[in-house]
């Protein structure tokens, strides 16, 4: 994955440069992902299509990228890339409803995004794949823990396939093209050469840094693997003269058969079948086999 550093603030540049290394090490320790070394990118000149995820820390005083640069970002997002914008200003948000949107980093981010075709956003729902793509998470803390994590709003159950196809972000694998936080993931993930954290956590709750790393793992796995769908079928006990029993695993919405569980145009990366046998007495399953295996 890629880290894009677009800040004129020297401290933030140093933190951002050390951010991905800590998360890459955590990924190697906790998952089977063998990620390559993260790299910085120049969003105005570098080829962005090689990177599934770009981390972009926002600095309120930084100059707004040119229209040509933002056109490159717009194309990158529409062609399958995801940008994680981090305003890193959760503790600067004014109190009261809507305070997070008035923080200086969020104001700067709105200016940057004003020229882009941004989809409707929402705080990550409890049942969103981001909350369960690797670790089970209830929230997504960084160095701070009071901010929200925002993603593309999921289509409503009544939205037609044609309406879904017109959504600005990609819908094929269900991955949001844009993720926004104000919790300063960079500060939580950044480590010194000796492996120690570079910055303290605020407010520093128990295991806050651990859960910040877990949030990073879920985000990386989400952008790399996409969404997933689950379906099941039950084989009730019954006699059959042929000795075989057949059922169909339907990838349709059980409550609305005309709605797909797998979005139209999705690319199926892999499919896994899990077989479970339940019995009260071993004699009930004598001779039961799946593809010739007991």
Low-confidence stretches: 3-15
Secondary-structure element string: EHEEHEHEEHEHHEE
Roughly what percent helix?
10-25%
Total beta strand runs: 9
* Total helical segments: 6
Main sheet record: 7 strands, mixed
Structural class per helix/strand content? alpha/beta
User: Per the principal axes of the C-alpha atoms, what is the gross shape?
Assistant: elongated
The average pLDDT score comes to 80
* Biggest β-sheet: strands ordered side by side in the sheet: 2-1-3-4-7-6-5
Strand content: 5-15%
Distance between the termini: 43 Å
Radius of gyration using CA atoms only? 23 Å
How does this model look, in words?
This protein is α/β, with parallel strands linked by helices and 294 residues long. The protein is built from six helices and nine strands; from the N terminus they run E-H-E-E-H-E-H-E-E-H-E-H-H-E-E. A seven-stranded mixed beta sheet has the order 2-1-3-4-7-6-5. Strands 8-9 form a two-stranded antiparallel ribbon. Mean pLDDT is 80; it is low at 3-15.
Strands, helices and their partners?
Layout lengths: L1 E2 L6 H21 L8 E2 L12 E5 L9 H12 L3 E5 L17 H10 L7 E3 L25 E4 L8 H5 L12 E4 L3 H5 L18 H18 L26 E2 L2 E5 L34
Parallel strand pairs: 1-2, 1-3, 3-4, 4-7
Antiparallel strand pairs: 5-6, 6-7, 8-9
Key structural traits:
single chain; 294 residues; alpha/beta; 7-stranded mixed sheet; two-stranded antiparallel sheet; elongated
Task: Describe what is shown at a glance.
This protein has 294 residues and is of the alpha/beta class.
């Amino acid at each position: 994955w890629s880290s894009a550093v677009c800040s004129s603030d020297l401290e933030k540049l140093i933190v951002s440069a050390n951010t991905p290394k800590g998360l890459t090490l955590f990924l190697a320790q906790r998952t089977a992902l063998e990620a390559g070394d993260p790299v910085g990118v120049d969003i105005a000149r570098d080829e962005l299509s090689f990177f599934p995820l770009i981390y972009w820390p926002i600095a309120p005083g930084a100059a707004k990228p040119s229209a040509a640069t933002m056109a490159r970002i717009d194309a990158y997002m529409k062609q399958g890339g995801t940008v994680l914008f981090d305003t890193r200003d959760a503790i600067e948000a004014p109190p009261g409803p809507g305070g997070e949107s008035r923080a200086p980093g969020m104001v700067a981010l709105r200016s940057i995004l004003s020229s882009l075709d941004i989809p409707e956003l929402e705080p990550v729902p409890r049942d969103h794949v981001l909350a369960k793509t690797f670790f089970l998470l209830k929230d997504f803390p960084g160095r701070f823990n009071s901010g929200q994590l925002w993603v593309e709003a999921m289509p409503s159950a009544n939205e037609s396939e044609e309406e879904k196809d017109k959504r600005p972000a990609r819908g094929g694998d269900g991955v949001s093209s844009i993720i926004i936080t104000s919790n300063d993931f960079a500060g939580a993930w950044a480590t010194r050469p000796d492996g120690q954290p570079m910055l303290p956590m605020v407010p520093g709750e128990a295991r806050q840094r651990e859960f910040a790393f877990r949030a990073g793992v879920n985000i990386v796995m989400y952008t790399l693997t996409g969404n997933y769908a689950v379906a099941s079928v039950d084989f009730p006990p019954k006699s059959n003269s042929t000795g075989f029993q057949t059922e169909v695993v339907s990838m349709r919405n059980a409550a609305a058969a005309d709605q797909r569980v797998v979005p139209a145009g999705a690319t199926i990366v892999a499919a896994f079948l899990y077989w479970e046998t339940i019995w009260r007495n071993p004699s009930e399953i004598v001779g039961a086999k799946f593809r010739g295996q007991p």
